[in-house]
Design a protein that fits this description.
Helix content: 40-55%
Number of strands: 5
Number of helices: 8
Order of helices and strands: EHEHEHHEHHEHH
Largest sheet: 5 strands, parallel
Strand content: 5-15%
Strand order of the largest sheet: 3-2-1-4-5
Structural class: alpha/beta
Distance between the termini: 41 Å
Length: 175
């Protein structure tokens, strides 16, 4: 099976993420599954809300997308030692050795991470063991935009899916 692995902070998941997933599924490699991996302890030390909220939002997001090829797969907490960042190499190794043994894994990045690729831990080893797919940024909708809009008291509903908006409102996140 061809599996696209898309990691992100998902703080929160946005319509920009949805557009990237659409691009992955439209790619000529015909991925049979896209797994979305929320960051537990970000390698670039991003400030994120609690992991449990991001996992819940990601599950809501996947539900909104209504495509059985797309799955939230929170596994970084299983890999983490609780103190150090969880690196892409570690996630791909874990997936390769557990759930997706024998499958073709492709790590998905956007143009922003392509520019930072040399900073990724074991970037060359990742390229040697697995595939790397750079998806274009067709919609510039970032989680930062959502957080800023919500902090200003705006609903940000044009930037996120309905169930994510509902979760954020119910839990009063990013206010």
């Amino acid at each position: 099976m061809k599996v696209a692995v898309f990691g992100s902070a998902f703080n929160p998941p946005t319509k920009g993420h949805a557009d990237a997933i659409e691009s992955i599924l439209a790619h000529a490699n015909h991925y049979e599954r896209v797994v979305l991996i929320p960051s537990f302890c970000h390698a670039f030390a991003k400030n994120m809300i609690d992991y449990s909220h991001r996992v819940a939002m990601l599950n809501a997001f996947v539900s909104d997308l209504q495509d059985d090829r797309i799955h939230a797969l929170p596994v970084e907490h299983l890999i983490s030692d609780g103190e150090n960042p969880v690196y892409t190499y570690d996630v791909l190794s874990y997936l390769h050795n557990t759930q997706f043994s024998g499958d073709q894994l492709t790590f998905v990045i956007g143009p922003d991470n392509k520019a930072n690729w040399p900073k990724f831990y074991k970037a060359q080893e990742i390229e040697e063991k697995w595939h790397v797919l750079v998806v274009p940024e067709r919609q510039s909708i970032r989680s930062t935009m959502v957080r800023e809009a919500l902090a200003e008291g705006n609903a940000a509903t044009s930037l996120i899916t309905p169930s994510v908006a509902d979760y954020i409102n119910r839990h009063k996140l990013y206010a």
